[in-house]
Amino acid sequence: MMKLIDLSQVIHNGMPVYPGDPNTKLSQIKYYEHDEYNNFKLNICVHSGTHIDAPMHLTESKQLVSEIPLESLIGEGCVLDVRYHDVITMKEEYKDLIKEGCIVLLYTGFDKYYGTDKYYENHPCMDMDFCKFLVRMNIKMVGMDMPSPDKYPFEIHKMLLSNNIYIIENMTNLDKLLETDGFEVYAFPLRINADSSIARAVARVK
Questions:
Q1: Which pTM value belongs to this model?
Q2: CA pair distance 24, 21, nearest whole angstrom
Q3: E strand or H helix at 3, and its extent?
Q4: pLDDT class for 34, splitting at 50, 70, 90?
């Protein structure tokens, strides 16, 4: 029997946002009792919650989220347990775990701090050697349960995106993938003409 695991944060009014980004406003504007139907209005930054960055975000590329090939948004998944590491570095064992063209997920456990100052200020970062290995492996996407793979000046972002490796940020439930016998990742953004998009990310466990 197919098992699906939701890897996405819930979108709600006042949800956590990256420092400096506008707050999310979700409100009900029509009510069935009075209007005979329900309707909601959403005002949200595209970098809120679980979202996917396209190359346009931090490179000179003009590629919009709507132009990401659908094939790049699904693929065999690989989860790395990188808890308790301030810097995520390359390890010899990753050469066996990470297959060419897969989707790599970094389980840091930092989603437990989602919405706190620590989540945004003290999250782990990838180092450049590990980043370059992912580029050599031609992976499709790298996802993580933290707000970013790096901090200013965002060189990891730039390296990944300039090589058409899309970035999924603010994921959750990655711990549920550790003991599986394999899984596929499906992470679909809106078909939107923007640099990034909120997304629904799901793992299909084998």
A1: 0.97
A2: 9
A3: strand 3-6
A4: very high
Domains and CATH numbers, the chain: 3-205 (3.50.30.50)
Please state the separation of Cα 137 from the chain's center in Å.
Answer: 19
Tens of pLDDT, residues 133-146:
999 999 999 999 99
Closest C-alpha among 151, 64, 79, 150 to residue 109? 79
Q: What are phi and psi of 148, to 5 degrees?
A: -170, 150
At 1 the pLDDT is 73
Nearest to 164, CA basis, from 82, 86, 84, 55: 55
**Structure token digits, residue 23:** 């707050």
- Geometric angle at alpha carbon 137, from 157 and 68, rounded to 5°: 55
Q: List the structure tokens of 36.
A: 């005979």
Amino acid letter at 190? L
Count CB neighbours of 133 within 10 A. Answer: 16
State the Cα–Cα distance between residues 155 and 83, nearest whole angstrom.
22
**pLDDT bracket for residue 2 (50, 70, 90):** confident
pLDDT tens across 137-175, in order?
Answer: 999 999 999 999 999 999 999 999 999 999 999 999 999
DSSP secondary structure, 99-157, as one string:
PTT-EEEEE-SGGGGTTSHHHHHS--EE-HHHHHHHHHTT-SEEEESSS-S--TT-HHH
Distances (CA, A) of 193 to 64, 66, 183: 5, 6, 30
Average pLDDT in the 47-54 region? 98
